[in-house]
Specification:
The protein has about 475 residues and is α/β, with parallel strands linked by helices. It contains 15 helices and eleven strands. It folds into two domains: about 240 residues, no CATH class; about 160 residues, 3-Layer(aba) Sandwich (Rossmann fold). The longest helix is centred in the first third of the chain and has 20 residues. The radius of gyration is 22 Å and the shape is globular. The N and C termini lie far apart (about 45 Å). It comes from Trifolium subterraneum (Subterranean clover). Keywords: Glycosyltransferase, Golgi apparatus, Signal-anchor, Transferase, Transmembrane. It is a single-pass type II membrane protein. This is Exostosin GT47 domain-containing protein.
Length: about 475
């Protein structure tokens, strides 16, 4: 079963495609050239500084880990669409202190190259592009809030209170810890610390929030079922009073959990950078009807759908397949991945180790219409970020029907008219600003990014839960 109908025409709240002073189109590229000339000196200066820091990075490896956040002078004021918020000054052991042992933050890999630049990772060849790890949203979120124009250092003015706990990094560092008390210790210590804070006790934490770079499942260990390394953070009663931002919420028991985008690779510093990228994506030639980038998974449930996607894509001349695993390095090169997606009209998004995938947000960044096979990959996750009318930006094919016909996926996608594909792609492109994390050193970039969208959603929640009269 799949849905496909004419897309509604109501506008989305996203960065406009054109402005009075700058039209981004194939026939008016001179405007872009003129704009580039006007910022050439600024870009040259920025690149020189960036090159100098890269030189320091490679010649002084002991200084590569960012343990403090660079503060820049705000160039704008909070306009009222985003609420004023206060950031707790937690003891370092709850956040940046963890980075001192960055090589032990993940049992599968050395995270030191990945946590540099406040979680953006190593810079790529293009300015504002980084090899960002999918599980570092908590670091990026924290760094972005530090320089946000709506941050207040006066807790009496705050609508929201942010608790900068790097819970995902801590969780991944103790996945194999057999002693549950030790595995839970830092999370328990955090709540003990918050209970001693005046502002937490005012509303029992209802105006407080945390952001987590890993899925909610990693913080919801239960007494029943197999243990896969989770701790109990999200099961603690006081945490249930707070709002929890996570890259994947638990669809059934996560009432206080709200999905935020996995970080992709683009972290713009200006509105112009975003406009130019949207235009590049819009103009991209897309010779393939669809593509699939991913590997097979062990286990009957996960393997079945992925095996079928690999099979149907591999057998189709209209599909570009990049099968990960077995040493295929293309899957680990950001620009290679995006290149495949920018050549495709549709990108297949099968569940991975859990329901969601970073690839969903990579595909949106590339202007590729996502195709889902589980409602929990996006539809029950990211209400603040994606249109409620799913057919505006995506295609849904029921997982159980995929293998019933040899080329079912291709037939479904071929049945969507070129006019409808163009409409859907425009919606996808309009979503790019709100699912992107702008560079943390920018105080105000001129549009709402993923952090702004979350703050606005949290503000609505707090006003509903506590009441306007009390705030």
């Amino acid at each position: 079963m799949f849905f496909r109908k004419s897309s509604p025409t109501q506008p989305l709240k996203s960065l406009p495609y054109t402005t009075k002073s700058q039209t981004l189109s194939k026939t008016k590229e001179t405007n872009i050239i003129n704009t580039n000339r006007s910022i050439k000196f600024t870009l040259f200066t920025s690149l020189f500084i960036a090159s100098w820091f890269l030189f320091l990075h490679f010649h002084h490896p002991t200084t590569t880990i960012t343990t403090t956040i660079t503060t820049v002078k705000a160039t704008a004021t909070c306009d009222g669409s985003t609420p004023p918020f206060y950031i707790y000054n937690l003891p370092e052991r709850f956040n940046v202190g963890l980075l001192k042992n960055c090589e032990k933050l993940n049992i599968y890999m050395n995270m030191c190259p990945r946590v540099i630049n406040n979680g953006l990772g190593q810079p790529l060849s293009k300015p504002s592009w980084y090899a960002t790890h999918q599980f570092l949203a908590e670091m990026i979120f924290h760094a972005r809030l530090e320089n946000h124009v709506c941050r207040t250092r006066d807790p009496t003015r705050a609508i929201l209170f942010f608790v900068p706990f790097y819970g995902g990094l801590y969780a991944s560092s103790v996945f194999r810890e057999p002693n549950y008390t030790l595995r839970d210790s830092l999370a328990v210590d955090l709540i003990d610390h918050l209970q001693s804070q005046r502002w937490f006790n005012r509303y029992n934490g209802k105006d407080h929030f945390i952001s987590l770079g890993r899925t909610a499942w990693d913080f919801m260990r239960s007494s029943s079922g197999s243990d896969f390394g989770a701790n109990i953070l999200l099961n603690m009663p006081l945490v249930k009073n707070m709002s929890v931002l996570t890259v994947e919420r638990q669809p059934w028991d996560g009432e206080n959990q709200y999905g935020i985008p996995y970080p992709s690779y683009f972290h713009p510093k200006t509105k112009n950078e975003m406009l130019m990228w949207q235009n590049k994506v819009r103009q991209s030639d897309r010779p393939f009807l669809f593509s699939f980038i991913g590997g097979k998974r062990k286990g009957l449930g996960k393997a079945k759908i992925r095996d079928e996607l690999v099979k149907q894509c591999g057998e189709s001349t209209r599909c570009e397949l990049v099968e990960c695993g077995g040493g295929n390095s293309k899957c680990h090169k950001p620009m290679e991945v995006l290149g495949v997606m920018m050549e495709s009209n549709f990108c297949l998004q099968a569940p991975g180790d859990s329901f969601t995938r970073r690839s969903t947000f990579d595909s949106i960044l590339a202007g590729c219409i996502p195709v889902f096979f589980s409602i929990h990959t996006a539809y029950t996750q990211y209400d603040w970020y994606l249109p409620k009318e799913k057919n505006m930006y995506s295609v849904y094919i029921e997982e159980g029907g995929v293998g019933k016909k040899k080329n079912m996926i291709e037939e479904v996608l071929m049945g969507i008219s070129s006019e409808e594909v163009e409409k859907m792609r425009e919606v996808v492109i309009s979503l790019i600003p709100r699912i992107s994390y702008v560079h943390p050193n920018v105080s105000d970039v001129g549009f709402s990014d993923a952090v702004d969208v979350a703050l606005q959603g949290l503000s609505r929640l707090v006003r509903e839960n506590i009441g306007k009269a009390e705030i």
